[in-house]
Amino acid sequence: VKPKDVPEALEASTPPAKRIVVLDPAAEDQVARAFGPHIFVMALVRTRDPDAARDLSQSALLEILVALRKGQLRDRQKLAGFVCGTARNVINYYLRARSQAPRSEPLGADTPSNSDGSQVHDLEKAERLALVRRAVARLEPGDQQILRMTLNDGCEPAEIAVRLGLSSEVVRQRKSRAVKRVIEAVKNLSRSSGGAPLNMDAES
Amino acid sequence: MQCEQVLTHEVAERYLRGALSDADQEAFEDHYFECASCFDELENLRLIQQALAGVAPAGKAKSAARGGWAPWTWAAAAGVVVGLLGGGLYWRHVSSIPPARRGHAEDRLARKQPTVPVQPTAEATSPSESEAASSAQRQPSAPSVAAGAARSAALAALAAVQPPPYAPPVLRGALDEAERRFRDAMRFYVRKDYAGARTELRAAAELDRERPDIAFFQGICELLTGEPVAAVAALRRTITSGESPYLEDAHFYLAKAHLRRGDLAAAASQLDTTIRLHGEREQETRELLRRLEALRRTPP
């Protein structure tokens, strides 16, 4: 399985020397669209800071596109690995620099938050999150709590089982079922609201 | 890494929680950059996580999960009964020991908490903990019930918590709601009103679940008010939030929370992690781990 919308310009048949020529703005946009979300998630998980993650996604994408323009990708099959490795280097560099810098004071709620530069993309994300919120709100309170304890509190199923008086297996089943229900509900809500199709095809 | 492995080992979920090893984290990243279905699963979980962060917890979730009392409730009740019996015998046993052989902490433990083993002990200084533990271990020929009570007292001494100090930061800029609740909480905290602080910290954590300072002090307050399971969850959040000034302390107090729950293996593991961080608590933690290992070697 490959990421969606990988630019045709990066097909294996394209000679490396020509890539700088054929990687036009549209192809660059496709690279950004295909891998931007992956880089953002990687940065978010590693930094736990949404604003820093957005900035890092942009920096990493810029670095990747510059490298592609220079023809540094020799094998098209390795595009995903190339993007992943470059993004990881950018994020790790940031983390190292942050750990050496003095700690700054929090600035407060009126600090403007950074955007990834694409208002359409931001709107899509906001819409998708709103649908997920509605779907989560429809879950039974017990299922909500299991998901919260798992994803937000970092509890293992055995620990949740003890706290809720269930077996670990039941916790796993309810968690898995709850995730499926959210995905299904989002699909239904998306269809009924007439919105754009959401990228939620996976049945975990 | 294969898709099947991702599903069966709940890798996406553990990745989001920051619970994977560095090698597994990189392997999963390499995988999801190439695998659309695994990335979709990751995105779904991330959005659910984000959505849940903005939803107040359901008040009756516990009863919704299962009607009636949970097994741990019964276990806790049974523990209290056993504690009352064992503690009474221990109280009589301790009373027969000359005061010169008893440390202040043991005396205080016996006076304040004669009934419940591994009960939250609000504050104890390190020398007193040490005296209580070693004094409790000095009774090898005592009857089995008293030996059990002595073990409980030793465990309680190991699990004793000295609240970490809190210095308010210099105010700058506007405060968001989470920050406001956090500062309210810490006003209770510096007055040693840990229950009041816990309430505010829980509210602050609902508003911002990613801030390590909120999660850390929530964990401390949960620990000090007898909620070790909640303390474990909050301290884990502190740890999974990554590098922060609270990382070493979070591992240390997580060990204490595991001790309160009677999970000695998990406590030893956290103490070991604390030592490997080579921070300010290294020596203290080495001593605590040594005493814990000694306690684990004694029969229950």
Summarize the structure in words:
- The complex is a heterodimer of chains A (204) and B (300).
- Chain A is an all-alpha fold.
- Chain A contains 8 helices and no strands.
- In chain A, helix 3 (50-69) crosses helix 4 and helix 5 crosses helix 8 (168-192).
- The longest helix of chain A has 25 residues, at 168-192.
- In chain A, 37% of the residues are buried.
- With 300 residues, chain B is mostly helical.
- Helices cover 69% and strands 0% of the residues of chain B.
- Chain B has helices at residues 3-8, 11-17, 22-32, 36-53, 61-65, 71-95, 104-112, 126-137, 144-159, 177-190, 194-207, 212-224, 228-240, 247-261, 264-276, 282-297.
- In chain B, helix 8 runs antiparallel to helix 9 (144-159), helix 12 (212-224) runs antiparallel to helix 13 and helix 12 (212-224) runs parallel beside helix 14.
- The longest helix of chain B has 25 residues, at 71-95.
- Chain B is globular, with a radius of gyration of 22 Å.
- In chain B, 42% of the residues are buried.
- The model of chain B is unreliable at 58-77 and 87-140 (pLDDT under 50).
- At the A-B interface, helix 2, helix 4, helix 5, helix 6 and helix 7 of A face helix 2, helix 3, helix 4, helix 5 and helix 6 of B.
